């Protein structure tokens, strides 16, 4: 072994084609640059609250890349968590939308200035609205999966959420409703485990060894994976999604991920030193194996950082929603 | 004439045949029982859900988002309380996404007293439900209105809470549902599941016609010019009866069946109060922070100078539950005598 092994668990050669590796990397960098810009906006007073997913790119980006994106039951439904900008960018959303939501402008494409950062909603891409109450999406997701099962085709439902939230009954509901013998559902159930509630350590709270073990009790194939490794994430998600698409039955993934900037602006939104940085780790491997040079990676990072800064400047001048717009869209006929 | 349970069943049949209803579900909603109040017997899209109210509301939301049209049932409204945050979510989805998503879903649940249901099968839900924006909330008091309101509910693009006064589910109507046969026994043979083995049974549906009661339109049940009474659900027929009794005493009472709580027919209430100058709101939810209090507040703010007496609310007592003993239930929610007395007193009150 001539090359130094910098990272133990990530030392196997990168198994994906170069083009794919570069796409994953590109999206991870773009997502990171977006999230860092969002944090900066918050800190400069251009937003009231930040929550997002820096540290989860290695999992969220492959997820978005593998989704069948479109509207209606032929395509995949995503019942997302609030840390999934990487997933949204991976299927082609422009980052400026997230900045607009942070600045709560009238142009915010996800909520018109009504909701927090990271609370995406895209009916045209089957992205169910992200909602602040933890875990409710696990109760809702079986519904879209039921429609898809009846509809036929290979569209699936994907639901994601945090580890602490699995204490909510909705998580149990999801396992129960997805595995009724009368109608097992095409649903990929995901828990991104960063080992924390806001400040409450998972070790204090979870009696079960792996959250994935709870799925096993329902006969759901379940895996705990390293969500900090984009290659492992990509391959495991691909296997899982192929299974769900074909078998029309649930599959469970618990992805171990980092929480690089803490819980949210509520806990300061500062870089946490002792978490694995999935992007840094991936870049070391890309460099080691000769896929990219450090200089190329730096250039990419700088370019995205500048793009986000320019977008943030643009967003700053955009109008706030008008006060009388509070009466709009209470009901659908107002559309 | 059909009773309200049969009317609901017929509306659901009409809706699954003609309005695209895809899923009628909830605890024991499918065969063999067809609902603990038999409202869903013989329908083709029914299925039994797990005993999980959060799962039921969540699934209804997901089905609606996926392009289906669900009608979910919560077995008793007393059990809908543990879904309150999901009801909030369903109600705010259109607004919070700036109109991106909507939720065409109906939730049906039996409400109120009248079957000696004790502490957990007697509650009302109108005050809580009308507190959650984004929903439309209706409560019929006759089989025909139940039929017509449910048909409108199944055409809505928004979440609808359909409250079924359980005391009235077995009461036959005075008006015929369009398409229902003349003979009640014949109707029962056609659409009521037999006792015992039901595996081979299929409903024989009459040729039903569409009849939609629009939301937000009350019904003038009785005209009068001295006192206005506004009610809905179980207490409505009691109000009508009280008005008839008092007519013999020379008191002229106007009775409004609100039918639709949100949106509601303010124009009808307003016109009536401007005519009579006296108004009594009657329902059986607990009296503190009651929906009738909202109506009173609006009456005071907008119609103060038309009033000849202070507006009144007759509602359920503010106690933690309804006790099983007959005497306890009767003392807890408005009964016939309470209503008659309240109207009589209001009619006699002088400024
Ligand atoms: C029902 C509910 N209770 C409490 C909160 C406040 N809250 C927001 S995030 C959070 C911790 C969530 O932890 P986890 O599910 O592990 O997700 P993570 O944020 O770590 O990704 C809490 C308690 C909430 N949003 N919803």
UniProtKB/TrEMBL annotation, chain A:
Domain of life the protein comes from: Bacteria
Catalytic activity: N(6)-[(R)-lipoyl]-L-lysyl-[protein] + 3-methyl-2-oxobutanoate + H(+) = N(6)-[(R)-S(8)-2-methylpropanoyldihydrolipoyl]-L-lysyl-[protein] + CO2
Dehydrogenase E1 component domain: residues covered: 26-323
Keywords in alphabetical order: Oxidoreductase, Thiamine pyrophosphate
Cofactor field: thiamine diphosphate
Positions of region (Disordered): 309-335
Cross-referenced Pfam families: E1_dh (PF00676)
Biased composition regions of type Basic and acidic residues, renumbered to the chain: 326-335
Top-level class of the enzyme under EC nomenclature: oxidoreductase
InterPro entries listed in its UniProt record: Alpha-ketoacid_DH_E1_comp, DH_E1, THDP-binding
E.C. numbers: 1.2.4.4
Function: The branched-chain alpha-keto dehydrogenase complex catalyzes the overall conversion of alpha-keto acids to acyl-CoA and CO(2). It contains multiple copies of three enzymatic components: branched-chain alpha-keto acid decarboxylase (E1), lipoamide acyltransferase (E2) and lipoamide dehydrogenase (E3).
Family: Belongs to the BCKDHA family.
Name of the protein described by the UniProt record: 2-oxoisovalerate dehydrogenase subunit alpha
UniProtKB/TrEMBL annotation, chain B:
Record's protein name: Alpha-ketoacid dehydrogenase subunit beta
Keywords: Oxidoreductase, Thiamine pyrophosphate
Cofactor(s) this protein cannot do without: thiamine diphosphate
Organism superkingdom: Bacteria
Gene3D superfamilies: 3.40.50.920, 3.40.50.970
InterPro entries: THDP-binding, Transketo_C/PFOR_II, Transketolase-like_Pyr-bd, Transketolase_C
SMART domains: Transket_pyr
Keyword Secreted: no
Alphabetical list of Pfam families matching this protein: Transket_pyr, Transketolase_C
Domain Transketolase-like pyrimidine-binding, residue spans: 2-171
Phylogenetic classification of the source organism: Bacteria, Pseudomonadati, Myxococcota, Myxococcia, Myxococcales
Keyword set includes Flavoprotein: no
Species for this entry: Pyxidicoccus parkwayensis
